[in-house]
Amino acid sequence: QTLTGHDMELTGAACHPTSRLVVSSSKDSTFRLWDFREAIHSVSVFQGHTDSVTCAAFSRTEHIVSGSDDRTVKVWDLRNMRAPLTNIQTDSQVNKVSISNNGMIAVPQ
Q1: What is the H or E stretch that residue 54 is in?
Q2: Cα gap 90→72, rounded to integer Å
Q3: How far apart, in whole angstroms, are the C-alpha atoms of residue 58 and residue 65?
Q4: What is the pLDDT of residue 40?
């Protein structure tokens, strides 16, 4: 089955550690949350970056962390996805984020 929704090419995808959820990131400056618990559909479109979203990862809690070519890392709450909880400005484009089991966010520079 084909999942449709992004307007440009994908830059990555990640699986939730315990739920049947997948997040996809794209050059269209968005990332999407996909729910595989029932019929496959896009649950939410996250908008807030101004350039390509290069990566997104789930934390062990109910958060998604996204990185972008706009030189920001954003932390989002899965229960309230309208605006990021935290914005982290970096000195360069972000192409990878990693989240430890206790919630620490690592961004290679």
Answers
A1: strand 53-58
A2: 6
A3: 6
A4: 64
What stretch of H or E contains 55?
A: strand 53-58
**pLDDT of amino acid 81:** 81
In this structure, the strands spanning 63-68 and 72-77 are antiparallel
What pLDDT, on a 0 to 100 scale, did the predictor assign at position 1? 61
Largest CA distance in the chain: 41
Half-sphere exposure of 83 (CA within 13 A, CB side): 3
d(CA 1, CA 9): 17
pLDDT (0 to 100) of residue 36:
84
Here the tokens at position 101 are: 């089991």
Residue spans of the chain under pLDDT 50: none
Are 8 and 53 contacting, i.e. CB atoms less than 8 angstroms apart? no
Q: In this predicted structure, what is the pLDDT of residue 97?
A: 94
The rounded distance, in Å, linking the Cα atoms of 70 and 11 is 14
Structure tokens at 76: 């989002």
